[in-house]
Specification:
five-stranded antiparallel sheet; 33% strand
Length: 230
């Protein structure tokens, strides 16, 4: 996982030093900049995008909560303040945590671990969203959607392929190499020059054959190591 880039917006030098020292002790945090007021931070944020802001509330020129309301797409925010009365407003603005000064390193670590957990979950969600579970193939001048989970096996027929699914079968003009490149390698394996099978649909196998949905499919001599690795 990449580092969490953070900035500090704090006008008290001692508070900045304590926060900076705490950040240095956490391997997944990277301090980008510190700012003594929110106006300076706003200018910097026009061209930069941190993952986390440590934000004091009583700042000169522009108060912390007012600054937070100006952010259209705020990153994670951890409030650091000596005033407890702003906690409800802070959580209404979706801050990750609210640290009351003075706070120990252990309390600081709890807060940043919340940011880390949320970020990990978001990245995992984005990755899952990006992974397709289907493909579209040209079948008789139509684009047909075929789910990976429904494919049993694929057979080469000269310049065409025949795709056998749990619901139907389709003929498409493409090579076995072309369809193999479109399939997730962790779900499908070529076991013969002319056959690709869905690993989850294999019912049994020997060194010479693989049985899928009651159909015996030959294993090519050059592909026996694939079967052995099943």
């Amino acid at each position: 996982m990449s580092e969490i880039k953070c900035i500090i917006i704090e006008d008290e030098p001692l508070a900045v030093k304590i926060l900076s020292d705490y950040i240095l002790q956490v391997p997944f945090l990277a301090l980008e900049r510190t700012f003594k007021d929110a106006i300076l931070a706003t200018e910097w944020l026009r061209n930069n995008q941190p993952d986390l802001i440590f934000l004091d509330i009583h700042l000169p020129k522009l108060k912390g909560m007012a600054f937070l309301k100006t952010l259209t797409h705020p990153p994670a925010v951890i409030i650091t303040t000596a005033y407890h009365q702003y906690a409800v407003e802070g959580f209404d603005l979706n801050v990750t945590d609210y640290l009351l000064k003075p706070f120990e390193f252990e309390r600081f670590l709890i807060a940043v671990n919340k940011v880390k957990s949320t970020r990990t979950e978001k990245l995992a969600s984005n990755e899952n969203r990006d992974v397709k579970d289907y493909l579209f193939l040209n079948v008789q001048k139509r684009k047909v959607k075929i789910l990976f989970s429904e494919i049993l096996y694929i057979e080469s027929q000269r310049e065409y392929i025949r795709i056998i699914t749990t619901k139907n079968e389709y003929i498409s003009k493409m090579s076995t190499h072309e369809i193999e490149a479109l399939l997730p390698a962790n779900l499908f394996k070529r076991i013969h020059r002319s056959f690709i099978v869905s690993l989850s649909k294999i019912e049994s196998y020997t060194a010479e054959t693989v049985e899928v949905n009651g159909i015996s499919i030959p294993v090519g001599r050059d592909y026996r190591n694939v079967v052995n690795n099943l």
